[in-house]
Write a structure and sequence with these properties.
11 strands; Nucleotidyltransferase, domain 5; 2 domains; single chain; three-stranded antiparallel β-sheet; 30% strand; globular; binds zinc ion; 24% helix
Length: 193
Amino acid sequence: MNALSVDLGATNIRVALGDKEGNILRKITERININNGSKGIANQIIRIINSLHVDYNRIKGIGIGSLGPLDIKRGIILIAPNLPFNNIPIRDPIETAFKVPIHFLNDCSAAVLGEKMFGLGDGIDNLAYVTISSGIGCGAYVNGKLITGKDGNAAEMGHTYIDLSGALECGCGKKGHWEAYCSGNNIPNYVKF
Ligand SMILES: [Zn+2]
């Protein structure tokens, strides 16, 4: 059996077909299209998956690692600091389109899970993964368990206060967050400041 994975970032959507050993069999990257509103994102993912022409009888499920913060119970992106809209429906439209199990996670939780399964985290019970890209994210294993928290955002480290004076505003609308100073999108603001 194989599985599909979707990496949904603020800049690109990457879709890959992989096997259970972690080999990537096929892969497509597209720039995210923000011109069709919040529902257009799931439709773009569906179109990319369709273009891979996979045999759905051999697909165990689709894993989606998404920018966040998320509401994993509702399957939506709650706030997308680096996109022009919030409350973006992701899980349900994709589940309806392909009728296979969908696993929807914060992108950094998915990344740390990948490292645990196939990478540097093999045999390690306490593990953190920090990414600095458009935003800043983190995923963590503690005592061998993936930490998600009630909404899936337990390790959202980019939205931690590092400057109580709140000089710079984060994409999430709050001030003084680490991401407002040190993410790929915001380092230029910090340099100007
Ligand atoms: Zn923030």
